[in-house]
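Tokens as discussed.
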């Protein structure tokens, strides 16, 4: 009987295949695969931004959270976010628990693709979001509590956030919120959630904040371009078909990313007179973040304005963590939360009903101020306030509760932070080679330490230490003749301490 029912189910799906254009289905499959490629890109980006001694731990935690998210989404995540039979407006029910009855019916997000494909595509969104959030543990958070947290956070925070604007019964959907590809669930969810996690986790040791800078900028650039590539599937695929709206979203994403990177780099140049690669990558990502909620609603000229504004505002937003005294090491709040907020606000001003209608489905979108729909501004502001407050409060409560469970304390020890998470948590290293010195400030070829230096601003990964005085002192020390040696004797170099690999 069971086999017969399964056969009939498959047969019905085959008979219904004419409802969907194969080009649309193929496009979303490829777009979903592109979004999955953002996971290693994110891991490489985070790893490059961290110190070498904690680089692999960030790759590990992003990778592990991806697997946890896949299980959670299959188990009940998709049902809690998108089950159409739930009418409370806040969260779904368990009608699709374990992907039950998820096959060939038109998806709740668009009639252009089947339900099963929509579930896969939205799963990749959740995987990217929780991977972004894992940046909050940078250099001092234990990985086991973070992985347990990721399952609970997806259930209690992400699923409601996804339900609000994208479920047909979500309160934000009914309220008229314009959120194309996840300014609320993805960007505000990861940015504000990461800020809450870092707040509960606490600041790194002050010694660890001195002269902090990325250990591998090449990896930062590689990760950024992997994210950019995947983001085209993220935003283009959110049109749920191979149509003009998807192409418009891709164009807007490219423009916002380009102008965001240029503006951020120029703002950094005015301070240091250097064209920073990290700054360019940060601005590029900020532009892509802003394009996430807006790229399917606005025209290209508006995307240029959005990229310029986002690059500037997110650059200055990196200073908010100093005002709040929160060690947001990877700038999740400045880039993702602030960028997502700006993108949602751009919809209030620049959203066009003609752009939204390019997919042939969303023909009743009222648009924003360019279409004289003035009330869209307070609709967007209300949505932003709701998502930010709910995300921060619930995330902080989840983290605090986990921290009280024996054996699941969030933070590593002081000694573990000094040695690095790669050594104490993973047992492997991103770059496994013998070190000259463990600490940067201990290293010198001709002495036991650097005599004079100016520490860079604590936790500012765009600053650079000034070692000019050190270089001058080294030159003097090497040029001065020693009274105990003759001209024929070469200076004896001290043996460098070699740390275990």
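Sequence:
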């Amino acid at each position: 009987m069971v086999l017969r029912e399964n056969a009939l189910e498959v047969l019905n799906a085959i008979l219904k295949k004419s409802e969907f254009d194969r080009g649309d289905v193929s496009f979303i499959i490829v777009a979903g695969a592109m979004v999955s490629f953002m996971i290693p890109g994110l891991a490489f980006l985070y790893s490059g931004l961290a110190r070498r001694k904690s680089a692999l731990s960030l790759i590990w935690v992003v990778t592990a959270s991806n697997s946890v998210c896949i299980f959670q989404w299959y188990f009940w995540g998709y049902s809690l976010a998108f089950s159409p039979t739930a009418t409370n407006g806040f969260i779904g029910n368990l009608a699709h628990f374990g992907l039950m009855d998820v096959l060939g019916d038109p998806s709740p997000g668009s009639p252009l693709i089947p339900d099963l494909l929509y579930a896969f595509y939205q799963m990749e969104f959740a995987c990217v979001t929780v991977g972004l959030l894992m940046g909050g543990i940078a250099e001092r958070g234990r990985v086991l509590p973070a992985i347990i947290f990721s399952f609970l956070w997806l259930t209690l925070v992400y699923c409601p956030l996804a339900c609000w604007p994208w479920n047909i019964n979500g309160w934000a959907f009914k309220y008229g919120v314009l959120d194309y590809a996840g300014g609320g669930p993805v960007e505000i969810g990861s940015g504000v959630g990461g800020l809450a996690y870092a707040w509960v986790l606490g600041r790194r040791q002050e010694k660890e904040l001195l002269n902090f800078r990325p250990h591998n900028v090449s990896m930062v650039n590689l990760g950024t371009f992997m994210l950019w590539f995947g983001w085209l599937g993220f935003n283009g695929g959110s049109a749920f078909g191979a149509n003009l709206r998807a192409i418009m979203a891709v164009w807007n994403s490219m423009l916002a990313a380009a102008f965001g990177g240029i503006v951020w780099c120029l703002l950094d140049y005015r301070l240091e007179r250097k064209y920073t690669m990290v700054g360019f990558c940060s601005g590029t990502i900020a532009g892509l973040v802003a394009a996430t909620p807006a790229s399917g609603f606005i025209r290209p000229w508006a995307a240029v304005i959005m990229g310029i504004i986002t690059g500037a505002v997110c650059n200055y937003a990196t200073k908010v963590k100093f005002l709040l005294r929160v060690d947001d090491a990877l700038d999740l709040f400045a880039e993702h939360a602030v960028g997502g907020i700006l993108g949602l606000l751009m919809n209030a001003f620049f959203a066009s009903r003609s752009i939204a209608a390019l997919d042939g489905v969303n023909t009743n979108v009222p648009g924003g101020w360019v279409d004289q729909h003035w009330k869209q501004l307070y609709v967007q502001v209300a949505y932003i306030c709701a998502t930010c407050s709910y995300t921060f409060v619930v995330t902080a409560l989840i983290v605090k509760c986990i921290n009280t469970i024996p054996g699941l304390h969030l933070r590593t020890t002081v000694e573990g932070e000094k040695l690095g998470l790669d050594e104490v948590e993973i047992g492997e290293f991103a770059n496994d080679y013998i070190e000259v010195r463990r600490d940067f400030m201990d290293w010198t070829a001709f002495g036991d330490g650097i005599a004079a230096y100016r520490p860079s601003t604590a936790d500012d990964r765009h600053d650079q230490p000034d070692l000019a005085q050190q270089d001058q002192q080294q030159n003097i020390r090497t040029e001065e003749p020693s009274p105990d040696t003759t001209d024929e004797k070469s200076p004896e170099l001290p043996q460098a301490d070699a740390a275990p690999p």
